[in-house]
What we know:
By secondary structure, the chain is mostly helical. It has four helices and two strands, in the order ααααββ. This is LexA repressor DNA-binding domain-containing protein.
Amino acid sequence: MNAFQHFAAQHAALHARHVLDEPARRAGRRPPSDIERKTFEHVRAHGGRTVAEIANALGVKSPELYAPLQRLKTLGHIKPNGTSGAITWRAA
Protein backbone atom coordinates (compact mmCIF):
# COMPACT_ATOMS: atom_id res chain seq x y z
CA MET A 1 0.00 0.00 0.00
CA ASN A 2 1.49 3.32 -1.02
CA ALA A 3 1.14 6.58 0.95
CA PHE A 4 -1.83 7.83 -1.05
CA GLN A 5 -3.76 4.58 -0.62
CA HIS A 6 -3.03 4.66 3.11
CA PHE A 7 -4.27 8.26 3.35
CA ALA A 8 -7.40 7.46 1.32
CA ALA A 9 -8.19 4.46 3.53
CA GLN A 10 -7.77 6.50 6.73
CA HIS A 11 -9.90 9.32 5.32
CA ALA A 12 -12.67 6.90 4.31
CA ALA A 13 -12.66 5.22 7.72
CA LEU A 14 -12.76 8.55 9.55
CA HIS A 15 -15.55 9.87 7.34
CA ALA A 16 -17.61 6.70 7.73
CA ARG A 17 -17.27 6.76 11.53
CA HIS A 18 -18.08 10.47 11.68
CA VAL A 19 -21.20 10.10 9.57
CA LEU A 20 -22.52 7.26 11.71
CA ASP A 21 -21.57 8.75 15.08
CA GLU A 22 -22.72 12.35 14.75
CA PRO A 23 -24.78 13.04 11.63
CA ALA A 24 -26.32 16.27 12.97
CA ARG A 25 -22.95 17.83 13.76
CA ARG A 26 -21.45 17.29 10.33
CA ALA A 27 -20.09 20.46 8.72
CA GLY A 28 -20.67 22.57 11.83
CA ARG A 29 -24.41 21.99 11.97
CA ARG A 30 -26.18 21.05 15.14
CA PRO A 31 -29.83 20.49 15.86
CA PRO A 32 -31.69 23.44 17.37
CA SER A 33 -32.10 23.46 21.13
CA ASP A 34 -35.50 23.38 22.77
CA ILE A 35 -35.30 27.07 23.67
CA GLU A 36 -34.35 27.94 20.06
CA ARG A 37 -37.39 26.06 18.75
CA LYS A 38 -39.71 27.70 21.26
CA THR A 39 -38.23 31.14 20.58
CA PHE A 40 -38.57 30.76 16.82
CA GLU A 41 -42.16 29.52 17.06
CA HIS A 42 -43.09 32.43 19.34
CA VAL A 43 -41.41 35.04 17.13
CA ARG A 44 -43.05 33.55 14.04
CA ALA A 45 -46.48 33.60 15.65
CA HIS A 46 -46.10 36.94 17.49
CA GLY A 47 -43.65 39.11 15.56
CA GLY A 48 -42.72 42.54 16.82
CA ARG A 49 -41.98 41.61 20.41
CA THR A 50 -39.01 42.62 22.53
CA VAL A 51 -36.68 40.17 24.27
CA ALA A 52 -38.42 40.87 27.58
CA GLU A 53 -41.85 40.15 26.10
CA ILE A 54 -40.64 36.92 24.47
CA ALA A 55 -38.95 35.82 27.69
CA ASN A 56 -42.09 36.53 29.71
CA ALA A 57 -44.23 34.53 27.26
CA LEU A 58 -41.82 31.57 27.33
CA GLY A 59 -41.35 31.68 31.11
CA VAL A 60 -37.58 32.25 31.03
CA LYS A 61 -35.30 35.13 31.95
CA SER A 62 -34.24 37.58 29.24
CA PRO A 63 -30.50 36.70 29.32
CA GLU A 64 -31.37 33.10 28.40
CA LEU A 65 -32.69 34.30 25.04
CA TYR A 66 -29.73 36.31 23.77
CA ALA A 67 -27.75 33.33 22.41
CA PRO A 68 -30.77 31.61 20.81
CA LEU A 69 -31.88 34.90 19.21
CA GLN A 70 -28.40 35.52 17.81
CA ARG A 71 -28.18 31.98 16.42
CA LEU A 72 -31.60 32.27 14.79
CA LYS A 73 -30.55 35.64 13.37
CA THR A 74 -27.27 34.20 12.03
CA LEU A 75 -29.16 31.34 10.38
CA GLY A 76 -31.51 33.86 8.76
CA HIS A 77 -34.70 32.68 10.47
CA ILE A 78 -35.44 35.95 12.28
CA LYS A 79 -34.54 39.62 11.90
CA PRO A 80 -34.25 42.45 14.38
CA ASN A 81 -36.54 45.40 13.83
CA GLY A 82 -35.88 48.81 15.37
CA THR A 83 -33.00 50.67 16.93
CA SER A 84 -30.92 50.32 20.05
CA GLY A 85 -33.10 50.15 23.14
CA ALA A 86 -36.28 49.27 21.27
CA ILE A 87 -35.34 46.21 19.22
CA THR A 88 -38.15 43.85 18.39
CA TRP A 89 -37.83 40.53 16.57
CA ARG A 90 -39.76 39.20 13.59
CA ALA A 91 -39.58 36.14 11.37
CA ALA A 92 -37.46 36.57 8.24
